[in-house]
Write a structure and sequence with these properties.
- It is an enzyme of class 6 (ligase).
- It catalyses: acetate + ATP + CoA = acetyl-CoA + AMP + diphosphate.
- It is globular and about 70 Å long.
- Helix content is 31%, strand content 23%.
- The chain is α/β, with parallel strands linked by helices.
- The longest helix is centred in the N-terminal third of the chain and has 17 residues.
- The chain has an eight-stranded mixed sheet, sandwiched between helices. Strands 5-4-17-16-18-19-20 form a seven-stranded mixed sheet, sandwiched between helices. A five-stranded antiparallel sheet has the order 22-21-23-25-26.
- Helix 2 packs across helix 3, helix 4 crosses helix 6 and helix 13 crosses helix 15.
- It binds 5'-O-[(S)-ethoxy(hydroxy)phosphoryl]adenosine.
- The site of 5'-O-[(S)-ethoxy(hydroxy)phosphoryl]adenosine (WTA) has 23 residues, from helix 11, strand 20, strand 25 and strand 26.
Length: 649
């Protein structure tokens, strides 16, 4: 049994909430959600106050989620104007470049002006309330400006991670019917350039074949590298920003008006456009940011995620800025120029709260303690993790070596769909257990069910559902409400199904065990096995493919591909390399397969369904644990798969 780390006096001193507070608040939040959230919604500025708090239903065929539905507000005004009015000189964003020699502090007044200018450029170029604007930018302040400029005028942003390929970007342009892109000439990461504008050019050509025309591209000059400029379509931000006014009145938005779409992978089909709306999302992001990190005025907060993922949306931009915090944006990678970079940045900017992914922790743990201990790290007060299960060894290294047992660790479990953190410790309130996300946040009612949907009580392991709505919950799949209901509410009727497995221990603590569907989590990047399979079969030499995950020391999960070739093709090393490059090109570098096994046949049932359970066991190098193979159409294929497995220890 894992040890429990009690709340230290130093953590409790000055913390916004104690354990008793947590219990009382939680109790109120689930017995009287209307009263609880109605009161806490006061942390936002409303143009027109709401009269109704919660109007939600998880009922089959009638899923509908509305919070604060008649309230009116603007997200960018909540993130900027009210802080700029009070204390415009306060730093909103600290930018730390890829190059350790480059950094900059940008005040609330300055961010507000840049956002207004960008909003005015968007308006001048014809963007209207409700239009979708696609943002494909590196980790530079302009990414935050672009999101908030959209929010200011009521346009719906769709941020696409800069690591996605032109194909993936094109798919998202088409699905969102987005005719406006904001990008940069190039990005820089770890000293290497990423050809963002060139990717956009390719994506626009592909999207046009898919029926979506992109009329305008606003380009941020980041590197000054050479890019093709199409007159009339492509505009430079640094030129246009001079030509517009520095102020722009925020558009009054209904609480349920869309704020953004963010694509995420599921177990089947193409990525889904997760839609978040304005009031509930912003409140939930702000509230969780304030309490999960126990943010205190004046502190420097750093989340190392990319704005292309939901963590960047909620915990680099919206949550921290809604709270008037100082948020650090880091353009680079943890290992450049060396494995001490993160801690050097912590010292340089006196970071108090640091939030990263287990994969980064494991990678840095592999580089030893010296790059950490070389830095002082005295400013650190709270450490957080997100994105994948954290193994107790990595948790303890983070706790002992990085935080010197001074800093509580908040292991935060949540999803793109949830908008914000759902299960997490609160620093100063929650006793910790390495590897456990501990307890639900306010208003969150997690439940465990077995395969048949039967609720499991007490200490148990099963499928993780949430019994009732919380304000940050996604509202729909963009353009496909039926898919929303089907994906999240049909497996266990009347409950939101997360796709994760979990265990609840005797103390009521939650331990996330990982996905129970065909979604992989590779270095905290979420992807569907179906997407990788369809990338593989789009190669002319591939006839069939099946992809599974296997445990990987650093990445959490590795990508294991079984590939059946077209008749007459030979499974050479060269073809293996070619397929890896092919998948990188189709999806993005982060989806590169770790293992490819050429398989003459795949194990299928007599009805033709691939038996993934068997493929997973082989990939995990557990050929002794294949279980019942008697229902296979051709049991012999398994022998070949076992004999040629790529992960043999
Ligand atoms: C996994 C990222 C264990 C989980 C915010 C979830 C975690 C998926 C944790 C969502 C955690 C996220 N412990 N697993 N603390 N946080 N996950 O949408 O499987 O990119 O379903 O959102 O990541 O990934 P997404």
């Amino acid at each position: 049994m894992a040890e429990t780390i009690a709340v230290k006096d130093a953590w409790a001193a000055g913390a916004s909430l104690s354990d008793a507070d947590y219990r009382a608040w939680y109790e109120e939040s689930v017995t009287d959600p209307e009263g609880f959230w109605g009161r806490h919604a006061g942390r936002l500025d409303w143009v027109t106050p709401f009269t109704k708090v919660k109007n939600t239903s998880f009922a089959p065929g009638n899923v509908s989620i509305k919070w604060f539905e008649d309230g009116v507000l603007n997200a960018s005004a909540n993130c900027l104007d009210r802080h700029a009015a009070k204390d415009g000189g306060r730093t909103a964003i600290i930018f730390e470049g890829d190059d350790p020699g480059e950094s900059r502090r940008i005040s609330y007044a300055e961010v507000l002006e840049e956002v207004c200018r960008m909003a005015n450029v968007l308006k001048a170029e014809g963007v209207r309330k409700g239009d979708r604007v696609t943002i494909y930018l590196p980790m530079i302040p302009e990414a935050a400006y672009a999101m908030l400029a959209c929010a200011r005028i009521g346009a719906v942003h769709s941020v696409v991670f800069g690591g996605f390929s032109p194909d993936s970007l094109a798919g998202r342009l088409v699905d969102a019917t987005s005719g406006f892109v904001i990008t940069a000439d190039e990005g820089v990461r770890g000293g290497r350039k990423v050809p963002l504008k060139a990717n956009v050019d390719k994506a626009i050509a592909i999207a046009e074949k898919g029926g979506q025309k992109v009329g305008k591209v606003l380009m941020v000059r980041r590197t000054g590298g050479d890019v093709a400029v199409e007159p009339g379509r492509d505009l430079w931000w640094h030129e246009r920003r001079e030509a517009v006014a520095p102020t722009c009145a925020p558009e009054p938005m209904g609480a349920e008006d869309p704020l953004f779409i963010l694509y995420t992978s599921g177990s089947t089909g193409k990525p889904k456009g997760v839609l978040h709306t304005t009031g509930g999302y912003l409140l939930y992001a702000a509230m969780t940011h304030a309490h999960v990190f126990d943010y205190r005025p004046g502190e420097v907060y750093w989340c190392t995620a990319d704005v292309g993922w939901v963590t960047g949306h909620s915990y680099i931009v919206y949550g921290p800025l809604a709270n008037g915090a100082t948020t650090l944006m880091f353009e680079g990678v943890p290992t450049y120029p060396d494995a001490g970079r993160l801690w050097q940045v912590v010292d340089k900017h006196q970071v108090n709260i640091f939030y990263t992914a287990p994969t980064a922790i494991r990678a840095l743990m592999g580089a030893g303690d010296e790059p950490v201990t070389r830095a002082s790290r005295r400013s650190l007060r709270v450490l957080g993790t997100v994105g994948e299960p954290i193994n107790p060894e990595a948790w303890l290294w983070y706790y002992r070596v990085v935080g010197e047992e001074r800093c509580p660790i908040v292991d935060t479990w949540w999803q793109t769909e949830t908008g914000g953190i759902l299960i997490t410790p609160l620093p100063g309130a929650t006793a910790l257990k390495p590897g456990s996300a501990t307890r639900p946040f306010f208003g969150v009612r997690p439940e465990l069910v077995d395969g048949e949907g039967k609720p499991l009580d007490g200490a148990a392991e099963g499928n993780l559902c949430i019994a009732d709505s919380w304000p940050g919950q996604m509202r729909t799949v963009y353009g496909d409400h039926e898919r929303f209901e089907q994906t999240y509410f049909s497996t266990y009727k009347g409950k939101y199904f997360t796709g994760d497995g979990a265990r609840r221990d005797g103390d009521g603590y939650w331990w996330i065990t990982g996905r129970v569907d065909d979604v992989l989590n590779v270095s905290g990047h979420r992807m569907g096995t179906a997407e990788i399979e369809s990338a593989l079969v789009s190669h002319p030499k591939v006839s069939e493919a099946a992809v599974v995950g296997y445990p990987h020391d650093v990445k959490g999960q590795g990508i294991y591909c079984y590939v059946t070739l077209m008749k007459g093709e030979e499974g050479t090393e060269e073809l293996r390399r070619e397929l890896v490059l092919h998948v990188r090109g189709e999806i993005g570098p982060f989806a590169a397969p770790d293992k490819i096994q050429f398989a003459p046949g795949l194990p299928k049932t007599r009805s033709g369904k691939i038996m993934r359970r068997i493929l997973r066991k082989i990939a995990e190098d557990e050929p002794g644990a294949l279980g019942d193979t008697s229902t296979l159409a051709e049991p012999a294929v398994v022998e070949d798969l076992v004999a040629n497995r790529q992960n043999k220890r």
